[in-house]
Design goal:
eight-stranded parallel barrel, Lyase, Ornithine Decarboxylase, Chain A, domain 1, alpha/beta, 26% strand
C-alpha cells in the first residue's frame, strides 16, 4: 500500500502533483510520503502489540534525518550498522537504549562511540569482535551489553546478494559454534549477555523462513538457560518483502501471527528490524527524459537519473515499476530505460513496455524509498539528488540537491605534491 496514485491522469504524492514538486526542486528527486511511512511503521507496532517489543527500524534502508525523526516520534528504535548510522539515529532523537548495532566490521572507534552512548546492545558477529568489545569496555570501565548474531543456516529464498543467513555467508556466528561463543562471552569480565539476534535476508516473501529460523534460535535459548545464561531480548531481524511488481508478501500482522505463538509464555522483549517494508513503497524517484535513441534492434529512453542515484536494478537486477508522471495515452514502446552514467550496467529497466515518452517528460520509478538514496553515490561526479517529503497537501525538502562546489568541498591539493 502506498500513497502515490494517479488523479485525473497525473501522478500525485499524497495530495500533491508530482510535477509541482519537480518544478520547485528539480529532477531527479526522491519523494517520500509521510502518510505511508507512518502507516507502515504502525502496521508493525500494532501487529506486535500485546507482546513486549521494540521496532528497531533498519536505518540502512533510508537514513535521512527527517525520516529517522518521524520514526523516533512514533516510539521507534533503530538497527544501525556503522558509527555514522548511530550518529544519525541519536541526532534524530532515537533514544540510545532503543538502538541495536549489527555489522561484521565494527571498528574500535565505533565500539567506543556506541559504549559511550549506552546503546541497548551490540549484535556481535564473531568471537574476535566479542574480544574487542570486551577490551574496549574494560578500558572504559563499562559493561558492554551484547547479543550474539547467530547464523541459523536458513534459506530465505531471496536474491543471493540480500540473503544473509546461510552457512556460507559472512554474517553471524554459525549455529554449531554459538553455545561455545556464549560460554566465552559469559567468562568475559566486561560483557553482559542480554540477547540473541538473527537476520536471514531481505525481500523475503514468505513467513516460513522466519518461523524456521526462530525455532532454531529458541532451542539455542533453552540450551543457554541450561548453561546458566538467561536471554532477555530476542531480535528476529528485518527482511519482510514488499510488492515491487506482483509479489504478495506477508504483512507485518502475518509475520506476528506466525512468530508470536512461539514466544507466548516466554519472558522476552522482542526486537524486529524492518527497513524495506517501512520505507520501500513510501518513496519514488522521479526523473526526466533527456533523449530517445534508436539503437540496433533496441530503443533507449535516456533519463537524468542513473545507477549512481538508484543502484538496485544494476546491482541486483531488481525490478522497479516505471510510470509516466502524466498519462498521455500514447502508444506503447519497449525500451531500455537508461541513465547518463558511462557504464553499460547503468539502467533502471530493461526491455520495458512503457507509454512512448517525449523529451522533457517526467517518469517515476516506483518503490524506491528503501535502498535508493541510501545506496546512492557521486559516481561520474554527479551531485547527490534532492529528497522531498510530502504530508497531505504540503511538502518540504529533507535534503538539498548538492552543487558542483559540494563535490570538491573536502578535497585539497597539497602544495608540495
Ligand atoms: C541486521 C539487519 N537488520 C535488518 C535489516 C533490514 O532488512 P529489510 O530492509 O529487508 O527489512 C538488514 C538489512 O540488510 C540487516 O542487515
Amino acid at each position: 500500500m502506498h500513497d502515490f496514485l494517479f488523479k485525473s491522469g497525473e501522478l500525485h504524492a499524497e495530495d500533491v502533483p508530482v510535477s509541482r514538486i519537480v518544478k520547485r526542486y528539480g529532477s531527479p528527486v526522491y519523494i517520500y510520503s509521510h502518510r505511508t511511512i507512518l502507516r507502515h511503521f504502525r502496521a508493525f507496532s500494532e501487529a506486535f502489540d500485546g507482546y513486549p517489543h521494540i521496532i528497531c527500524y533498519a536505518a540502512k534502508a533510508n537514513s535521512n534525518s527527517a525520516i529517522l525523526k518521524i520514526l523516533a516520534e512514533e516510539g521507534g528504535g533503530a538497527d544501525v550498522v556503522s558509527g555514522g548510522e548511530l550518529f544519525r539515529a541519536i541526532n534524530a532523537g532515537i533514544p540510545a537504549n532503543r538502538i541495536v548495532y549489527a555489522g561484521v566490521g565494527k571498528t574500535t572507534e565505533e565500539i567506543r562511540y556506541a559504549l559511550k552512548e549506552r546503546i541497548l546492545m551490540f549484535n556481535v558477529e564473531s568471537e574476535a569482535e566479542l574480544i574487542e568489545i570486551n577490551r574496549v569496555a574494560g578500558i572504559m570501565k563499562r559493561n558492554a551489553p551484547i547479543a550474539l548474531r547467530v547464523n541459523p543456516d536458513i534459506d530465505p529464498e531471496t536474491h543471493p546478494y540480500i540473503s544473509t543467513g546461510l552457512k556460507r555467508h559472512k554474517f553471524g556466528i554459525p549455529m554449531e559454534d554459538a553455545l561455545e561463543c556464549y560460554r566465552i562471552a559469559k567468562r568475559m569480565p566486561h560483557i553482559e549477555i542480554l540477547g540473541i539476534h538473527k537476520h536471514i535476508g531481505s525481500q523475503i516473501t514468505k513467513v516460513s523462513p522466519f518461523v524456521d529460523a526462530l525455532k532454531k534460535l529458541l532451542s539455542l535459548v533453552d540450551n543457554l538457560r541450561l548453561n546458566g545464561m538467561e536471554i532477555r531480548y530476542i531480535d528476529i531481524g528485518g527482511g519482510l518483502g514488499i510488492p515491487y511488481n506482483d509479489e504478495e508478501p506477508p504483512q507485518p500482522k502475518d509475520l506476528a501471527k506466525a512468530v508470536l505463538p512461539l514466544l507466548w509464555g516466554r519472558d522476552f522483549t522482542l526486537i524486529v528490524e524492518p527497513g524495506r517494508s517501512i520505507l520501500g513503497n513510501a518513496g519514488i524517484l522521479v526523473t526526466k527524459v533527456l533523449y530517445l535513441k534508436k539503437g540496433l534492434g533496441k530503443d533507449f529512453v535516456i533519463v537524468d537519473a542513473g545507477m549512481n542515484d538508484l543502484i538496485r536494478p544494476s546491482l541486483y537486477g531488481a525490478f522497479h515499476r516505471i510510470v509516466p508522471v502524466v498519462k498521455r495515452k500514447r502508444k506503447k514502446i519497449i525500451a531500455d530505460i537508461v541513465g547518463p552514467i558511462c557504464e553499460s550496467g547503468d539502467f533502471l529497466a530493461k526491455d520495458r513496455e512503457i507509454e512512448r515518452p517525449f523529451q522533457g517528460d517526467l517518469i517515476a520509478v516506483m518503490s524506491a524509498g528503501a535502498y535508493g538514496f541510501s545506496m546512492a553515490s557521486r559516481y561520474n561526479s554527479r551531485p547527490m539528488v534532492a529528497e522531498v517529503i510530502v504530508r497531505g497537501k504540503t511538502f518540504g525538502i529533507i535534503r538539498q540537491r548538492e552543487t558542483y562546489e559540494d563535490l570538491i568541498a573536502r578535497e585539497r591539493i597539497p602544495e608540495d605534491i
